[in-house]
Amino acid sequence: MSRPRIRAARPADAPFLLSMLLEAVNFSPDHEQDPAVILSDPQVANYVAGWPRDRDRGFIAVGEHDEPLGACWLRYRAPTDPGYGYLDADTPELTIAVTRETRGTGVGRALLRAITADAQESGLTKLSLSVEHANRRASRLYRSEGWQTVTCEIDADTMVLDLTASTPNTARTT
Q: Residue of 24, 63, 116, 121 with fewest CB within 10 Å of its CB?
């Protein structure tokens, strides 16, 4: 696979972001959940509901024929509506997923580097995310990009990337 092109997420990308949210939750065939059940949980649905809000930012990876390959986005959550990787109201939470066909091809890393560089250029100081322990591939990716576990729960970790302590790798955006 050739290197994906990374572009900014637009309002029209909301349905694709929703599909990527479902991919993130259903990261393993052994872990499949019904989309209606997933989205009936407001804590999950609020990762994409009303995309984009004022401070939301995100990227879409596209292939050579402009087919979407994956997405990552940042969303601020309130203390009254925390996400699974919630740290505080000033730290946006990252959601990232790629299509099943492109897993392990570098698309996720390219997206992660693009959103990290953009966040740092925008003056953000840290990002957070939640990753299930069973999602070992994602955990390895995050650690290799400098993310640190700050909270370890029974089935998932909350990880943080300190943007003041590292220089993110960069990816071309268009």
A: 121
- Radius of gyration from C-alpha coordinates of the chain: 15
- For residue 170, is pLDDT > 70? no
| Residue pLDDT, tens place only, 25-36 | 887 667 677 777
CATH 3.40.630.30 fits 5-162, yes or no: yes
* pLDDT band (50, 70, 90) for residue 43: confident
Non-local (6+) Cβ contacts of 171 within 8 A are: 6, 110, 111, 113, 114, 117
Q: Which two tokens stand for residue 45?
A: 């649905």
Neighbours of 5 (CB within 10 A): 17
What pLDDT shows up at residue 74? 98
Name residues whose C-beta falls within 8 Å of residue 144's C-beta, 6 or more positions apart in sequence.
none
Q: Which of 25, 128, 13, 137 shows the shortest CA–CA distance to 69?
A: 13
Domain coordinates in residue numbering, the chain: 5-162
